[in-house]
Specification:
Radius of gyration: 20 Å
Largest sheet: none
Distance between the termini: 48 Å
Order of helices and strands: HHHHHHH
Structural class: mainly alpha
Number of strands: 0
Helix content: over 70%
Number of helices: 7
Amino acid sequence: MTAGVIAFPITFIVTDLLNEYYGKAGIRFVTYVGMGMIAFEFIILQIAMAVPTASISPVPSSAFNTVFGASGRVIIGSLTAYLIGQLVDISLFHWLRNLTEGRMLWLRATGSTFGSQFIDTFLVLFVAFAGQLRIQEILGITIFNYAYKFIIAIVITPVIYLFHWVMDRYLGSETARELIEQAEQNIAVEHARVRLPES
């Protein structure tokens, strides 16, 4: 299993809450900010590797560059997977929300995750490690990571409901309902725009 999936429970909850209360526009904005931060991290690492290592550093330059020099492909893989995975997750979440007419929170929260996370997991590993690991090894790690995410998504479903309750209390039930209705209206408008050229 890769270390990157350790944070998955947090991203799962945050993505769900943003989708529910702020709709596609809100989650897309956060997705693009996240991508910008990953790109910023990449630039900082390149500068850090270019700066000469001080003689008193407990970490030798070769060790630092070995660890962080390999991060280029990991970051490119992360950016690619993050963008595609998030956009697939957003689309599935709102498709399921439409399908269930806003009911069954558990289905859209976990269903969108199950649909998007295999793509996300495989892409980041393939871009980062193709040529270094055999495709069988990449698929093996993908399946293990995906199974971990699958189990976490099921186990923390009650936590999702708890966070929705907390958000409703924090925002006030009326404001929370208005945000959710606005998110649903925006989806309906977007779907209508997509259908217009076909009619």
